[in-house]
Amino acid sequence: ESWDDGAGHEGENMFAYSADDKTWRGMFADNDGRVHIFVRGNVGSGSAEFYGPSSGPGGEAILNRIQVVRVAPDKIEQIWAKSTDNGATWSTVFRGEYTRTNR
Hints:
0% of the residues lie in helices and 66% in strands. It is mostly beta strands.
């Protein structure tokens, strides 16, 4: 996925399955120099979750979670949440809906 927020912030996201070790992984990179690696993923029928560590502005440990859920045949919802207590509580930092278009 390539994205642009309309205000100059843009990036690329990718999720992929590794046949070698049978795991799902993800990577997000933006033009502000941020890179988020999702090292663990669970994919099921109609939904997926990906998890990965990062550091906050003060060096604190953050756990990132991306959830992708099919809400209609041609629509998904993506929610990015962060936790500063190793997943006990979550704060949503992004929520988006994506609709398939025919080109």
